[in-house]
Please model this.
Amino acid sequence: MTDGGAAGAGTGDEVEEHRAGWFELFFDLVFVVTVSVLAHGLHGDPGPGEFGKFLVLFFPAWWAWANLTVTVNLFGSATPRVQAMLLAAMPALGLMAAASPAGLGDRAWAYALGAGWVRLMLFFIWFRHARRPGSPLPLWRPLLYCLLPAALWAVSAAVPGAGRFVVWGVAIVLEVVLLAVRAGLGTAPYDRMSVEHLVERIGLFVVIVLGESVFTVVVTLEAHFTAASGVAALFAFVAAAELALIFFTWGTGSAERGLSRAQSGRATRVMRDTVMYLPFVLVCGITVVAAAFGTAVAEPHHVLPAGARWALCGGVLAFYSANAAISTRYGDGVRNVLGWYVPCLVLTPGMLLPAALLLPAWGAVACTAALVLLLAKLSKWRLRGRVDLWP
Model:
């Protein structure tokens, strides 16, 4: 990788700057809406169906964002062609967001068409670069990775009943499998990636999700403006701020070092896992915790319903489990990771779950803030003398 960033996949494009451009930030606005719409379905007392619906509908949106981020990382967003493709993809993502409330029902066709349109835009970008002389990217990869899934998503819009979701699964599995298979590709795209840009883009997505938690708390407090709701909102804000502190104080710096080591060592699977897969678990954890906070602010005197308890405890576990997996993939010793991860595994069911079962909702949120603060202090204590720990 050059000092200036990711070049255009050996095509002679201008070197990509390390900072995210304004066009990418504008593009992310649609994901603010997507996260908000999907998170709304988890408020109150969500059951297994609501959690499953959230995951099924959120992953294709996340996958589209991750692929677009990698595409911009490699080819830049300054050229009119790439900007036009990104701009064209935004309404498709907006359609997916608008269809999400009934994305597994009578709006599934619209969700599928939006997902297919995004992949078609990706195909136009990648195929153009694959056709250039000397490109390390074989022509068959954008055809199979972008165009074929786009066709499957589009066809699924006309498939009735459960068969539609089988086609969705085939499209997603095809992309995941092709991402794992590097035949004809080697390490060329990974060698040209800008680590700084990847870390910044993932960090900005986490900001979006954290912003959803703050938005949920404030809007719910506005609708239930009581002293008890105010206390619940305050503790929810503290907990969200602590999660942000953990991620941005230690996580981003460690991610940059870990990705740089993986890139220099050509550990392509590490880069793939920590950019494409594991952040999805992390942002899902924050999103479901935010939904539980909204429920607590709305009904602060009542014990949290079962679904909100699952969201609260499961979200905390997902956040720390993703961080533990990322730390391990970056080469941090298992013993060091377990030093802060095991307390999370013990205290979440041992302290947070009983609090959610027995205390009023505002008390459960207060215990969440206390738990996250305790784990942050433990991570900081174990971090003394070390610089390579994602907490």
User: Anything to note?
Assistant: The CA atoms of residues 308 and 323 lie 23 Å apart.
